[in-house]
Amino acid sequence: MPSHHVHESEIGDVRLRCPKDGTLMEKSRVASGGVTVDRCAKCGAVWLDKHELERILAAGAADKVDLGPFGKDKPNGPIAPLQCPRDRSIMTEVADARQMHVLVMVCSECGGKLLDAGELIDLANFTVGERIRAVLKM
């Protein structure tokens, strides 16, 4: 977790810090999903509080939240354990049940989830091939 000295101008700021790079995350209201998400302008990671992922996917609003892959700027994985921006608990990496290639950082304390840029859109686009594989596993 990047260390960060709190500047005087940030005292009282309710924005979260990106667990990956320490950047203040910008809040974005998703009208169709009825949720407010936190997005890092530097790496594109998206923080979703408990149940927000399901609400965004149900509303078909993933493309309004996720800016898509940031390309070569994306790190090859965390170099240190990531801390939840809400409660500072260590998050764990969990593969999505339907799309095992999508690895989501999850806080076991508050239920929040951190997705890399592009992963929310990937989760929303459950492809025909992925659906067939899911049915065959049943």
Folded structure, characterized:
With 138 residues, this protein is of the alpha+beta class. The chain has one domain (8-137). It is 20% helix and 19% strand. It is built from 4 helices and 6 strands, in the order βββααβββαα. It has helices spanning 52-59, 62-65, 119-124, 128-137, and strands spanning 25-30, 35-40, 46-48, 92-95, 103-106, 113-115. It has a 6-stranded antiparallel sheet. It starts with 24 loop residues before the first strand and ends with a helix.
Radius of gyration computed on alpha carbons: 15 Å
Helix and strand composition category: alpha+beta
How much of the sequence lies in strands comes to: 15-25%
- Level of helix content? 10-25%
Q: What is the number of independent domains?
A: 1
Please summarize the sheet with the most strands: 6 strands, antiparallel
Mean pLDDT: 82
By DSSP (H or I, 4+ residues per run), the number of helices equals: 4
Q: Count the E strands.
A: 6
Structural topology:
Layout: E1 25-30, E2 35-40, E3 46-48, H1 52-59, H2 62-65, E4 92-95, E5 103-106, E6 113-115, H3 119-124, H4 128-137
Antiparallel strand pairs: 1-2, 2-3, 3-6, 4-5, 5-6
Sum this structure up briefly.
With 138 residues, the chain is of the alpha+beta class.
